Amino acid sequence: MFETLKKAPVDKIFALLGEYRADPRDDKLDLGIGVFKDPSGNTPVMAAVKKAEQRIFDAQTTKTYVGVSGNRGFCDAIVDLVFGDAIDPDRVASVQAPGGTGALWVIIQLLNRARPGAKVWMSDPSWPNHWPMMELAGLSPQTYPYF
């Protein structure tokens, strides 16, 4: 069933992580993936994150399903943070998505419904999952130089 699937190309960022791990120097720092690691290689939870999580936990009153668009309070706060008074909030639609790739997939699906086969421009370099996601949805990915 899966014999026709092709192996995805190596992600350049994760390839960089492999090079980091292979580097024998003791004075190196891993700044490649976006997660802070201490000198022992641990990824500690920052005090500010623990404090924010505790505030959420203390204010939580239910575990009920929040609906397909996510936590409405969160979405409204993000709209206010991004747009402030510059635009009427009734002119903005927002949804909460499961991370960056999940958010990208939601917008890709919306774009393809609004403009099937549309050209979508992205920087080069970009993340290696962006191009195939756009193609899979039927969009036409194009690139422009990042530098």
List the helices and strands and how they pair.
Layout: H1 12-22, H2 47-59, H3 72-83, H4 99-114, E1 119-124, H5 130-136, E2 140-145
Parallel strand pairs: 1-2
Low-confidence blocks of residues: none
Number of strands: 2
Structural class: mainly alpha
Number of domains: 3
Give the N-terminus to C-terminus distance in angstroms. 42 Å
**Integer average pLDDT:** 89
What are the defining features of this structure?
single chain, mainly alpha, Alpha-D-Glucose-1,6-Bisphosphate, Chain A, domain 3, 3 domains, two-stranded parallel sheet, 5 helices
Describe this structure in words.
The chain has 147 residues and is mainly α. It folds into 3 domains: 9-61, no CATH class; 67-96, no CATH class; 97-147, Alpha-D-Glucose-1,6-Bisphosphate, subunit A, domain 3 (Alpha-D-Glucose-1,6-Bisphosphate, Chain A, domain 3). Helices cover 40% and strands 8% of the residues. It contains 5 helices and 2 strands. Helix 5 (130-136) links the parallel strand 1 and strand 2 (140-145). It is extended. The mean pLDDT is 89.
